[in-house]
Amino acid sequence: MSTTTVVHLLRHGEVHNPQGILYGRLPEFHLSERGHEMAVQAAAWFAGRDVALLYSSPLERAQETAEPVSERFGLPVRLDDRLIEAGNSFQGRAFSSRSIRDPRIWHRLYNPFQPSWGEPYSAIVARMVEVIKNVRKEAWGREAVCVSHQLPIWMARRAAEGQRLWHRPDRRQCNLASVTTLTFEENRLVSVGYAEPAAELYPAGRTLPGA
Predict the structure, then answer these.
(1) pLDDT, tens digit, for every residue of 83-136?
(2) How many domains does the chain have?
(3) Average confidence (pLDDT) over 14-30
(4) Where does the UniProt annotation place the signal sequence (predicted)?
(5) Is 149 within 8 Å of 163 (Cβ atoms)?
(6) Residue 211, in any domain of the structure
């Protein structure tokens, strides 16, 4: 019989960000109260699973999301820079649809297929594929949880499903505290799953913002 290994990509919960800053990789952005509740519900979703390994992006919001999983399974949180948020030249500023009308930033928007304003999609996929392969090997025959961010998780999923990397950001299926599950038979990916353990905390069923 073949060996089944499962790698779960858990997106962090809601971040306290009253000013609406595109926080990217900036430090000191922590989970909101609701974000902590989301993390607890995500951890509960893994109950009964054979989780043997827990990794996280080094950013605070990801580590805080990993804590309830760590407590539930008695696992240390291992940090891996490859799970970090995508680089973005707009981080640190409030950014909205109105912002693109500012001529001063047009030089960053010339190529949405790369994208020209941040870390190339291909680079994100390369590091996510690398860490997933390493985690799969380490958790062989069991399950692992990797806490990351929306764009890296979405890029890993699109690559796994053989889809083009360029996409519309408003159509990403990677909500807060969601779980994207990659199931492998030996080294072969056999399925991609998606769940939203904290959906009841989304206001009026809406997708919550946040990177």
Answers:
(1) 999 988 777 777 655 655 666 665 656 677 788 778 999 999 999 999 999 999
(2) 1
(3) 93
(4) none
(5) no
(6) no
Q: Which of 37, 74, 51 is nearest to 145 (CA)?
A: 51
210 is a domain residue: no
What is the torsional sign of CA 150, 64, 16, 37? positive
Distance between first and last Cα of the chain: 40
Strand pairing category for 51-56 and 179-185: unpaired
Residue 92 maps to a domain = yes
The pTM score is: 0.91
Please give the order of strands across the beta sheet that includes 78-79.
Answer: 78-79, 51-56, 143-148, 4-11, 179-185, 188-195
Predicted confidence band of residue 1 (pLDDT cuts 50, 70, 90): confident
CATH number at residue 176: 3.40.50.1240
Query: Which domain, by its residues, includes 62?
Result: 4-205
